[in-house]
Amino acid sequence: MQLSRLAKRRSFMVLLLFALVWAGLLLRLWWIQVAATHHFSKHDVDLVKSAVKQRQQRVILHSGRGDILDRNNQPFTGLEQQALIIFPLARGSIAGTDALKDVARIVNQPEQTLLHMVETGKEPTMLRDSNGKLIPLSSSQAEEINRLQIPGIVALAVTERYRADEVAKQVIGYINQNPSLLQTMYQQELEAGTMSLDNSVGAAGLELSFDRFLQGLEPSSLSYYVDGKGNPLRGLDIRYKQPENQFYPLALVTTMDRRIQQKLEQIADESGLKEGSIVVLDARTSDVVAMVSRPQYDQTRVNVNDSAWQNHALKQIPPGSVFKTVVAAAALGEGVVSPTERFFCGGSYGKFGFSCWNKEGHGNLTMEEAFAESCNITFAQIAKRVGGEKIDEYAKRLGMETQIGHSTQQLFKIQDFRQLTGEDPGRVFHQGKPTDDEGILIQTAIGQRDVRMTPLQAANLMATIANGGKVNQVRLVSDIRYRNGVNFYHFDPERLAVEGIDTATALKLKHMLQSVVETGTGKALQQAAWPVAGKSGTAQLEVAGEPRIDQWFVGYAPVTEPQYAIAVVAENQPTTAASKATQVFAKVVNELAAWQAQSSGLHAGNQP
Questions:
Q1: How far apart are the C-alpha atoms of 217 and 195, rounded to whole Å?
Q2: Helices marked H in 31-79 — which ranges?
Q3: Three-state secondary structure along 455-513?
Q4: What pTM was estimated for this model as a whole?
Q5: CA 350 to CA 362: how far, in whole Å?
Q6: 490, β-bridge pairs
Q7: Bridging pattern class, strands 407-411 and 414-418
Q8: Which residues pair with 137 in a beta bridge?
Q9: Nearest CA to 238 among 89, 138, 126?
């Protein structure tokens, strides 16, 4: 009797447990399919969207992100081209037909190439060459392909954000998926549902600094909906999605000239400039005309552990004798030395193991001659007379110890907005503490020890001198525009919040910079297309235990009416190498002169 009751109780418990399990499963199914379909689990997964994606073959035709343009509205991003797109479902469409042969004939490609795309494609793919570059189609080719009406094979206008042969890659930067950055920058948008964690954001360059403005609309896309076997679903076989908005996405208009940028990148590569930078500013406004950084990198496949994506023009490095310009400004501005005062260089300083690059010495020479010949001994004596406090003061007055890119205290939701993300400030003394220690001071005088400067700062230093001592902020973006071309925001040229130098000191420095080319270390530039004023520099460094040098040449041209301020740095060069920086500088000046002559001719030809 007791065994029977026990058995019944056990049976009841099993049935109860079974009922509870089923109730739990039903509750779970209700939760998944009804209550939490759009916000499932702690990861906030949209199950409906995920289910749709599983039966969707989709290709992005335009990212929806705003474009970045040069001053003439030529694109650095977002070139639209007609492209051949093959979806995986095309395998069923072409079976037993000559359709692929017809497509191959139209696009002038081997049939085997297209067959390989069809058979191996797991997602929609575009026709590209062996280097991964999109093979563009003409309008007539695109029309002929689409007349074939082959399911899964179409020709459409595609806008790729980055191209393999694009220029100014470090200036433009790149985008990637970064959920942690999204949560930091766009918390309100994520909570409102207008953005999701799989959105791409700017990671470097203008893409990062202007990300909030470049974030546009939903991407334009083409989708096929398929069944479990990959066949098109009737009535849902193809969908084209394109947001319609006359205002967005916004576009950036930079101060750069794409044609000049392209020419200077060609000069850099043909000259073997594998590591370094070229900066060209408008000498009157300090607007960026071109900015080249090497080594090169691929914006579509970025290795963040490799520094190639960083803009070398914005990174602080020892400037070598270029810094003698700052020492000279302090000495002249304070009136402790005149350009005609005479000094003696015997080749060595007498202590600290300090010597001149000219081991035999320069003998008796004036300050101006010492600047032209880049005499270390003379500038060690001058620096000792000027003192650390004044050298540091003039470095600050000339913008050498701050970020000089265009800034705005508040730009919409962004506080302390800066156009140049990643720009280093530069420095003179360790921890910003000036000293009159003789050993430190003489090394500082020649741009070694703790002195650091960016190529951008060096170019702006030349623009400041050419401008009579006034220091401008460096502007890279002039306007943010609506899609319809109307201005959304304009960045006015601004002065940098530093004192600068007086016009008399600037005039003396201009004469000294001219003497460098007329009689000194820059004589090779006498053959340039324009008269040049400037300063050479060589910074000693050690790379992997081996002595190396960074070569500099900075200046402006033409001398009489300066139009461009230029800085060229050839980094990590052999100690015995001829000055690649001076060679590249000459080619840059020649290119700018040729471009100016061509532009003047075009304008003259347009006169009535």
A1: 10
A2: 47-54
A3: HHHHHHHHHHHHCCCCCECEECEEEEECCCCCEEEECCCCECCCCCCCHHHHHHHHHHH
A4: 0.86
A5: 15
A6: 479
A7: antiparallel
A8: 82
A9: 89
Query: For residue 252, is it left (φ>0), alpha (ψ between -120 and 50) or beta?
Result: beta
Q: Which tokens sit at 57?
A: 């073959």
Q: What is the pLDDT of residues 157-192, one digit of tens each?
A: 998 899 888 999 999 999 988 888 888 888 888 888
Q: Is 296 exposed, middle or buried (0-12, 13-18, 19+ CB in 10 A)?
A: middle
Domain parsing of the chain, residue ranges: 68-75+163-254, 79-160, 258-296+312-605
Topology, domain 68-75+163-254: Penicillin-binding protein 2a (Domain 2) (3.90.1310)
Architecture of the domain delimited by 79-160 = Alpha-Beta Complex (3.90)
Contact 500, 398 (CB under 8 A): yes
Which tokens belong to 316?
Answer: 């602080």
Residue with token string 């800034």 = 407
**523-532 burial string, b = 16+ CB within 10 Å, else e?**
ebbeebbbeb
Q: List the catalytic residues.
A: 321
Select 258-296+312-605's CATH number: 2.60.40.10, 2.40.50.140, 3.40.710.10, 3.40.50.720: 3.40.710.10
**Token pair of 114 as six digits:** 């297209």
Indicate the burial class of 96 (C-beta count within 10 angstroms; 0-12, 13-18, 19 or more).
exposed
Q: Are the C-beta atoms of 131 and 85 separated by less than 8 Å?
A: no
- Taking only the tens place, the pLDDT of each residue in 326-366 is 999 999 999 999 999 999 999 999 888 899 999 999 999 99
CA gap 314, 503 in Å, rounded: 28
Q: List the structure tokens of 180.
A: 């942690």
